[in-house]
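pasting for the record
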Amino acid sequence: MNVQAWTYVIVTATFALYVGIAWWSRVKTTSGFYVAGRGVPALANGMATGADWMSAASFISMAGLVSFMGYTGAIYLMGWTGGYVLLALLLAPYLRKYGKFTTSEFVGDRYYSDAARLVAAGCTIFVSFTYIAGQMRGVGVVFSRFLEVEVHWGVVIGVVIVFFYAVLGGMRGITYTQVAQYCVLIVAFLIPAAAISWKITGNPIPQLGFGGSVQEGQQAGVFLLEALDALHRELRLPEYTAAFVPGKKSMIDVTAITLALMVGTAGLPHVLVRFYTVRSARAARWSALWALVFIGLLYTTAPAVAAFARVNLISTLHNTSYSDVPEWFRSWETTGLIDFEDQDGDGMIDMSDGANELTVDQDIMVLANPEIAELPAWVVALVAAGGLAAALSTAAGLLLVIASAISHDIGKSILWKDMSSRRELLLARGTASVAVIIAAYFGISPPGFVAQVVAFAFGLAASSFFPVLVLGIFTRSTTKEGAIAGMSTGVLFTGSYIVYFRLIRPEATAEDWLFGISPEGIGAVGMLINFALALTVSRFTKPPPEEVQQLVSEIRLPRERAGDSP
């Protein structure tokens, strides 16, 4: 069978699995819809968290970014994994011990204010819709290439699947679907990585092949990274392993982006809510540990995949006649995600600096890598199924967070406090239905490539949630006025900066940015503004009530709260 036939078979089988799990785990209560009844085992929750966390950005786009950025692309590896450690140590167990449904609910109670809850819910919706745009974009990219449909139809198909298991199964359905999706995406990532590592370096373990030597060709016996540096020098590009040199990001921008991704990770609502689904704070800690193990499998493999893809792309296409390009090039060319413009009229593909004859969308590198390496058709199809699993798992979690913010944090907690559980569940499902339609629009017309859009979401989360959550857990003196001022100012500053430099002045360079910090990293500055404003305003406003201060102390006690047994 060819790639398309294999893709139909594998994608159809995995989609049937997801829908079947959703039907089996459908819920009828608000507790089941929001937090899966708080009965998810730590191991399963860790796996589901891994799938929720490893979005289309991790599976599809991250290795592509590292492949083009080289050493500088490590900001995504350091930021996202380092941030998860912050999340596990500073937030997850304490928020679970608090024992409510959502992060906004914690903010509203800790800062004794419906206004604070409303601001937190608004930030949740804003961040989640920004993030979901990247996931739907990833779905469209996969469908457009491997099922040979238009991008917008690919998005629609993905949205229908997410709608079914997110709206029907709620958090319980999403959780167990994400367990299956993690298995699909990690197998889909590791199998081609191991095969390509064996083919290039003779070592089937990608992490070791990354530091190994090239087996064949003109650079046989040369270490892989040294071979990549030599290829870049030949193309008059900055060396792959070089840092802070002309043509690459500055040190301050790298630092800012890494920090924004780290603290943004610890503030993402769809990740935080996963720790409300387990039985206790102890189980939340174990969930975080298991999740880090499962995430590490992909994140330690991604740099190797990036290097393999870069070597294969240059070796296959540079100085190749356009009439002789391989079949995979023609297939991706029809999607518009790779394009050749023969500027000098010689019919040869020139990838050197200044030629600009070949345009490659960074999002295709992981998906195209098995084809470039001439792996079997079923492996190529498996990667497509893995990319869909990664995008759909995160999209489902985000949709549920949006539905929870509107139905529970705004509807039940502020507007209609006497609303019954049955009506709240109907409102949550209706909200998720509307949100999925909006998500489809963002998937068809996203404001950037997948990882870039996701980086914006992390910056917004960093500038809004992280400071108020940390201050809410570890200080007794932060007031509602300080929290509201910090959240509002931080997210408005970050959002305005991103909009200005990505939509209004997209041609701006590093010289135009504040302190040389790009829109992807400005969330770090927004976070500092949030912290500074929250602490300053709290000094000049009335201290929190005694019962709130007591709540803060109780959250940090090592013993479990009543009714929160392991």
